[in-house]
TrEMBL record:
Its cofactor is Mg(2+). Pfam families: Cauli_VI. This is Ribonuclease H. Belongs to the RNase H family. The keyword Nuclease applies. GO terms for molecular function: metal ion binding; RNA-DNA hybrid ribonuclease activity. Its EC number is 3.1.26.4. Residues 3-46, 67-109, 141-183 form the Ribonuclease H1 N-terminal domain. GO terms for biological process: DNA replication, removal of RNA primer. The keyword Heme does not apply. Gene3D superfamilies: Ribonuclease H1, N-terminal domain (3.40.970.10). Endonuclease that specifically degrades the RNA of RNA-DNA hybrids.
């Protein structure tokens, strides 16, 4: 059965049937937004709901004390009037905007989150850490409690596929499979720690202790 990967915010928007092609568009793209579908029409609807209709960027020499960058909305760009920003982000799913004191900062934010420019260098350090973790001899488990699909995964790439673009994603790396499974099932770190403590206490109680011998009483 065909799968459709809708990339709403990535280096290249579009509908992909090959996960590797979709992955190229979202890897290293800041806060990429995408979703997997079984139905092509649903995937197209998802894309259309997350599409900017126009771009507006005020002149760089505009005199203002506040600049608003809208990276995801009906109209994207850099604004000085907040009313325009409100219209742009109203009812737009996963809208993204931020206020700045200078045009340069606002424009940089817009380029980063709308077009992915300047994001690759920032993500390179994370990529190196990821590769280092995956090539480590120690076995690791990636637990996804909230994502496109919850569960325990053996590689970061699988974990990233389930969490990228998912609002409120919750995931964590473990070196213990049982703890990873507990986290994926919805347990908090505190509950996992308590479970671990109970298990350790139980093991200690199960250890045979020598029974002291009674001394014979002299008559």
């Amino acid at each position: 059965m065909s799968k459709f990967y809708a990339v709403a915010h990535g280096f290249k928007r579009g509908l992909f049937e090959d996960w590797n092609e979709a992955k190229k568009q979202i890897d290293d793209f800041p806060q990429a937004v995408y979703k997997k579908f079984d139905d092509k029409k649903e995937a197209e609807k998802y894309l259309n709901e997350r599409k900017a209709t126009s771009t507006k960027i005020v002149p760089e020499d505009t005199k203002a004390s506040t600049f608003y960058a809208v990276a995801r909305g009906k109209t994207i760009g850099v604004f000085v009037e907040y009313d325009e920003v409100k219209k742009s982000i109203a009812d737009y799913p996963q809208a993204l905007q931020k206020k700045f004191s200078t045009f340069a900062e606002a424009h940089e934010y817009y380029l980063k989150f709308a077009e992915g420019k300047g994001a690759v260098k920032e993500e390179s350090k994370k990529s190196k850490e990821t590769k280092s973790a995956e090539t480590s001899n120690a076995e690791v488990f990636y637990a996804v409690a909230r994502g496109h699909k919850s569960g325990v995964f053996s590689t970061w790439a699988e974990c990233k596929e389930q969490t990228d673009g998912f609002r409120g994603a919750k995931f964590k790396k473990f070196d213990n499979k049982e703890e990873a499974e507990l986290f994926a099932s919805g347990k908090t770190l505190k509950q996992i720690e308590e479970h671990k403590k109970r298990s350790n206490d139980s093991s200690s109680n199960d250890t045979d202790c020598p029974v002291p011998s009674k001394k014979s009483k002299k008559v």
